[in-house]
Specification:
Strand order of the largest sheet: 2-1-6
Helix content: under 10%
Shape: globular
Distance between the termini: 40 Å
Structural class: mainly beta
Length: 67
């Protein structure tokens, strides 16, 4: 799926490889992970306004164990 990032200056960046995903980090920055790329593309908190496409799932456990 395509990930489309709208920058704060009004421009857009398109990542159109199969398996491209985005992650919104806790500090407000955005990270795009691309299949086959060694390094992710990162946008600082003020450099992007909107993002659409596939979001990378969280690694947090969905269910808690109870004893």
């Amino acid at each position: 799926m395509t990930v489309l990032v709208t920058r704060s200056d009004g421009g857009t960046d398109e990542f159109a490889r199969y398996g491209d995903r985005y992650v919104k980090l806790g500090d407000g920055s955005l990270q795009i992970t691309r299949v086959g790329a060694q390094h992710a593309t990162t946008y600082s908190a003020g450099d992007w306004t909107t993002v659409s496409g596939d979001e990378k799932p969280s690694h947090r456990a969905r269910f808690r164990r109870t004893r």
